[in-house]
Design goal:
about 425 residues, alpha+beta, 4-stranded parallel β-sheet, 4-stranded antiparallel β-sheet, 12 helices, about 30% helix
């Protein structure tokens, strides 16, 4: 009798992705070990591992010692924060892994742009404004409109389109205030790059020994033109012809080869204009939030199942369907303290709606983008085509009303 394949999941403390991987591993019969830092790391069996957050070398040595007794078939990172550590573990254990250039491109927005330039890939002009540096040199390096974004935040937080030097100055001040409020470690650098025009898409794919397998391509039907870039609606399959789909796959494969992506999940954001495909980012992880649930609706298998099956070289039987699926990340309507959400039952009754999942709770502070996050919830749809799927999401969202109260500052004498 063959033994269960053993996979190491490297996750930050309290990562929201971990539970989905645990469920997928159980369904596949994979022996999953969760390695994380924090006082109380999540363990799913007797081999759960608490890592030393202060030393990468110690963390890798600990995993190496465990693997010597019972080897792993693969090591997977759940989030951007664990990508470098997971690669270090794979390298030490001789497991399939991405190259160093891929790690840099995946975890560093400026590193991604630099790698593209170094490898001769299309890239907008860009400049990195370091902490306390003025924007004068930046204005000489990029043209307007441009986009300013912090290097250390995700989910489009702090991403601001600027039409002039004055707007860029204001954006830099605003982003620096955000970073200071977050109390993040490291340099508070800001990437400023030329604005990429075109329709926006997202790709979920897998790599195995350098071979690319596209799982889903999402269309973003809402205009992503700024000034802020809060995500809203994703639908799949996208409303594009076969030639456009092929151009996305060809451009992505060129990016993968040039930047040394060879193994595991791949998430990409891109825009298509009359000049071709331009990438906003690529990352060696899955899509964020609950958007990955759409993959399960589309294919019959969860995104985490696809990732784990790929890691142990096990095929996944894809379900055939002619339907289109969509997800809306519910936007934050205005700042305030949530009192209640009205209209949820009406939203769920909209034709084509699969589910309405509101995560925000009474008393929670809601903050709009660009400072905002997290999303208050998600709406999912299933219809005959992408246009209907998007329309159903909008109709359901129109039924929702977020009742808030002003946040009052409390002065303690």
């Amino acid at each position: 009798m063959l033994s269960q394949p053993r996979v190491l999941l490297v996750a930050p403390d309290r990562s929201y992705r971990t539970g989905a991987y645990i469920a997928a591993a159980a369904g596949l019969g994979i022996d999953l070990t969760v390695a994380s830092w924090g006082r109380h790391p999540l363990t799913v069996n007797a081999n759960g591992v608490r890592l030393d957050a202060g030393s990468v070398d110690n963390a890798i040595a600990k995993i190496q010692k465990i693997a010597a007794q019972n080897p792993f078939s693969a090591a997977i990172a759940t989030d951007d924060a664990t990508v470098p550590l997971a690669r270090g573990i794979c390298e030490r254990l001789g497991l399939p892994a991405n190259g160093p250039r891929a790690v840099r491109a995946s975890t560093d927005k400026a590193g991604f742009r630099t790698a593209c330039v170094e490898q001769g890939l299309p890239s907008p002009a860009f400049h990195v404004i370091r902490a306390a540096e003025s924007v004068d040199e930046c204005c000489q390096r990029v043209s307007f409109p441009c986009v300013a974004k912090p290097l250390s935040l995700s989910a489009s937080r702090g991403v601001i389109r600027c039409e002039s030097r004055g707007e860029l100055l204001g954006a830099v001040v605003r982003i620096r205030q955000m970073l200071s409020a977050e109390s993040l470690d490291g340099e508070h650098a800001i990437l400023v790059e030329e604005y990429l025009s075109g329709d926006e898409y997202s790709v979920e794919a897998l790599l195995h020994d350098g071979q690319l397998e596209v799982i889903a391509i999402f269309e973003k039907p809402e205009p992503m033109t700024g000034p802020f870039f809060e995500e809203t609606i994703y639908v799949t399959p996208p409303r594009v012809d076969a030639r456009t789909l092929r151009s996305i796959e060809v451009a992505l494969m060129e990016m993968v080869v040039a930047l040394e992506f060879r193994e595991g999940p791949l998430h990409a954001e891109l825009r298509i204009s009359n000049t071709g495909v331009s990438f906003i980012e690529v990352a060696s992880r899955t899509i964020g939030g609950r958007c990955g649930k759409v993959v399960e609706f589309l294919t019959g298998a969860s995104l985490e199942t696809w990732v784990l099956a790929n890691a142990v070289r096990r095929p996944v039987q894809r379900r055939d369907t002619a339907d289109a699926f969509g997800v809306m990340m519910i936007p934050v309507p205005k700042a305030g303290v949530l009192r209640r959400v009205e209209g949820i039952s009406n939203a769920r009754r909209v034709k084509g709606i699969v589910s309405v999942e509101v995560d925000a709770r009474e008393g929670q502070k809601l903050t709009p983008w660009p400072e905002g996050g997290p999303y208050p919830g998600f709406i999912f749809s299933r219809c005959g085509n992408a246009a209907e799927a998007a329309a159903a999401l909008r109709a359901a969202h129109d039924e929702l009303a977020f009742v808030t109260a002003p946040e009052l500052a409390v002065k303690i004498a």
